[in-house]
Amino acid sequence: MSTATHTSPALSASAAAFGMGRTVRLGLSRIGYETKIYFRQTDTLFFTFLFPVIMLTIFSVAFQGMGNVGANPDGTGGISQAAAYLPGMIAAGILLSGVQNLGVDIAAERSDGTLKRLGGTPLPVLSYFFGKMGQVFATSILQIALLLLVAVVAFGVSLPTDPAKWMTFAWVYLLGIATSAILGIAISRLPRTGKSATAVIIPPVLILQFISGVYLQFSLLPNWLQTVASIFPLKWIAQGMRSVFLPETFASVEPGGSWNLGAVAIALLIWLVAGLVICRVTFRWIRKDS
Amino acid sequence: MTSNDIAVSVQNLTKTYGAFAALKGITFDIERGETFALLGPNGAGKSTTIEILEGYRDRSGGEVRVLGVDPQHGGLPWKAKLGIVLQSSGESGNVTVREQLTQFAGMYPNSRDVNEVIAAIGLEEKANTRIKNLSGGQQRRVDVGLGVIGRPELLFLDEPTTGFDPEARRQFWELIRSLKREGTTILLTTHYLDEAAQLSDRAAVVAGGKLVDIGPVGSLGSAEARVPLVRWRESGIVREQRATDPGAVVAGLVARLGEPVELEVVRPSLEDIYLELVTAENAEAEARVAANTTATDGAVIAGTNPAAGASPTTTSFTTTKENERA
Asked: In Å, how far is B170's CA from the nearest CA of chain A?
């Protein structure tokens, strides 16, 4: 206290009252609030949270009869359908938890007056973002935990034991989820109304899942479609996750014959920075004078 | 009076949307501690004005200061001193009343006690109910609670009691009076003139983007507009006469007709005066002159439809209110 006596107490008090500490404190409080609301919305719970788990279950059961993926001609070796689909579903979950969840959620909040109300309060925009990002982190970690649990318990998938694999998982996950959340905030600007939000955001997200190696094996897609998919982040998240959960021998069917983790990092970083710039430039509490 | 005594200062405020002029030069001040009502028909510019003051809209011209700050450049410390109750809110409301108030209380440096606010808005029994499961009037009370949770110096209330039942409206008035006693400056827009009369120190009437009158509620309108009206039925027709000496007029009637049928002496209500102000704004010049002439010379001015049981102006006002609620 005594060190600050030479500055104006009123000035330092107001600076402290509205400084970064307050922004972080309010952001943390909003993470709990946002996460609570997330789990109270039955539609997001189904279409975002449980969707990858349901798809993993359906694909694993439906294609069980086709035998293992990458098996020898005599039917031995290879990995189960569930093990083959697991990395793609984790990647899809990351995209849904960020882009689809926040894109629809924030568009609805803009439309129903939530953002207008918050814009009239002393809540910093950054605290609001922290709340949304934190909600995405919390829910997607739970989602992946559930995916792994179902894969191991229901379908007997064996998870990697090499710590290096889990290190790769950690950075691909963190980079992927941050990019996905930021892009969700950015894309929420597109729907004109809350009602049209799902119609505007879900179709492109769904198409991306089909062309990025989530539902269809990426190496089986035509080259031009692989190139198109390579523009978008989901392909790279899925590739990173395959490098973690699939055996090394599967790297040979990847484009270029390797996991190419360097390209994964660069592609996701570019999208992350682009998303941050878009958010910084375009985010407003309300469309002024609409 | 120093500028510190002025909470809101609006000078020659204009707002245009393309070719449409929504506000055509509005000027008024609100003192600290004052409760000020903005009255006017739909589309008159009330909400445009209040949203410019709240920082939601940018003005096209003129000068505006709210708590000494230009709302177009109001930062977080400025917002912390405001309480805003918007005209409508349609949030999905997947949180309880208590959760929502607690979340908002955390944003303000000197917030009120959450339980106190829940009690003040009369929702103790609904405190743990999700907002989406409340009635419209109860949701509106949550809006008001969120507006006052930060202990604002200046409270904006944009049609706060729409959807309230009479008892809830009375409770709301009590809440507003208690805020006023604490020194809160309040800017209120409302369609309910009794509400303006109950709560506000001064009121301004806005019509067609212009301020047509301003002053204490009791002094709104011209002196003529507040002259009492004597109404009676004669030869099957309802007659009206404006008179500063209604007793003498009634005495004259009694002398002439005996006991007059359906005799009334009506002191023009705030609604009558208000309607005169806003219709005068829209009326043609000749019509205004004609109205003034008949009002001042005290002649019998109209025979109204006896079946209606009310003057045509009152009927049309009721219709307007119903349209707005729809």
From this structure: 25
